[in-house]
Amino acid sequence: AQSVAQPEDQVNVAEGNPLTVKCTYSVSGNPYLFWYVQYPNRGLQFLLKYITGDNLVKGSYGFEAEFNKSQTSFHLKKPSALVSDSALYFCAVRSLYNAGNMLTFGGGTRLMVKP
Amino acid sequence: GAGVSQSPSNKVTEKGKDVELRCDPISGHTALYWYRQSLGQGLEFLIYFQGNSAPDKSGLPSDRFSAERTGGSVSTLTIQRTQQEDSAVYLCASSLASGRNTEAFFGQGTRLTVV
């Protein structure tokens, strides 16, 4: 079975500071990894994904994520946080080992960026 | 349409009544997911459809919940004899079955309130 862990329920950061939202995963075989963001009263929006290749993936709104196979992690990062980045962030994984297309989500991390 | 469409956007129902929630996925997407999100919480997997394969119903919380997908496109999630604990936002997503571009795209959700 595949699983995703987001160890922090909430991350607080001051505007202009770098931010990191943590994600670790467990799958059989090579993973496909995703980050989604959910703004208040909105659906989930796709941010970025890791499929293969470079371990550092760049996505929307200046976000990036680093895939670390040995640590089975896919932490989301941004060099300089904005107040408008405050939202709920979800990490997700899909394994290509399984024939299906099942997408498993972590429990979410609330990011609070303070002015 | 261009995105995943869910209807209704909001539904208030009396305890004990049945409700139907509709999801119209992106054209050509063979994978369809239903998730449930309680207020500000993570995503709870409900059911997953992949092409003509038997759906993965492992996340349905009780036999009051059922879903179908007609013609490989539109899906309906039915909740019978609704209870107050069924109140949540029900999210639908779709994705391509294979290929590198396999992120899931989410609808805006249906907010269900059982009174």
Q: Can I get a quick summary?
A:
The complex is a heterodimer of chains A (115) and B (115). Chain A is mostly beta strands and 115 residues long.
Task: Describe this entry's structure for a reader.
The complex is a heterodimer of chains A (115) and B (115). Chain A is 0% helix and 52% strand. Chain A has strands at 3-5, 10-14, 19-21, 24-26, 31-38, 44-50, 56-58, 64-68, 73-78, 87-95, 104-105, 109-114. In chain A, the strands form 3 sheets. In chain A, strands 2, 5, 6, 10, 11 and 12 form a 6-stranded mixed beta sheet that branches. A 4-stranded antiparallel beta sheet of chain A has the order 3-9-8-7, with no helix packed on it. In chain A, strands 1-4 form a two-stranded antiparallel ribbon. Chain A is globular. Chain A starts with a strand and ends with a strand. With 115 residues, chain B is mainly β. Helix content of chain B is 0%, strand content 46%. The relative contact order of chain B is 0.33. The model of chain B has no long low-confidence stretch (mean pLDDT 90). Classes of the chains: A mainly beta (115), B mainly beta (115). Chain A binds chain B through residues 32, 34, 36, 42-46, 49, 51, 88, 90, 92, 94, 100-108, 110, and chain B through 31, 33, 35, 40-43, 45, 48, 50, 53, 56, 91, 93, 95, 97-98, 100, 102-109.
Question: Can you summarize the main beta sheet of chain A?
Answer: 6 strands, mixed
| Unreliable residue runs of chain B | none
- As a whole number of angstroms, the C-alpha radius of gyration of chain B is 14 Å
What is the rounded Rg of chain A? 14 Å
Question: What is the first-to-last residue Cα distance of chain A?
Answer: 41 Å
Strand content of chain B: over 45%
**Envelope shape of chain A:** globular
Largest sheet of chain B: 6 strands, mixed
Topology, number of strands of chain B: 10
Share in β-strands of chain A: over 45%
Please tell me the overall pLDDT of chain B: 90
> Which outline of chain B best applies?
globular
Helical content of chain B, roughly?
under 10%
